[in-house]
# Entry
Amino acid sequence: MVEHRLPAKVLAAPLHKHTREDEFSFILEGTVGAKFGDQEVSAGPGNLIFKPRGEWHTFWNAGETPARLLEIISPGGLEELFRRLDRLTEDLSPTEWEQLIAPYGCSADMKATMALVETHGLIF
# Structure
């Protein structure tokens, strides 16, 4: 379980999917937007967003104030990828990104991510 603090209008991750884990976001403060599959939702404090394995998804702060949420990913193991991402010191190309996340059963769609950023006026 990881607590995320997202400034206003920040996208937490590119549109991605993982094949081994289910992901849950429990909203503590603020408003969080999420996309999973073809559906988009907006959730506030006390709401739980379920993002099942194998489905394209991402989430962002949909409000003008900071948001806080708990991310629960089960089963464990994906946290090693997060540690690697936290140690990055420069931006990755789409190809480098895919090479980094593929061993963890993950893939990302950067084109769809940038469309989402534009649609919602997000920072990524």
In short: The domain at 2-120 is CATH 2.60.120.10 (Jelly Rolls).
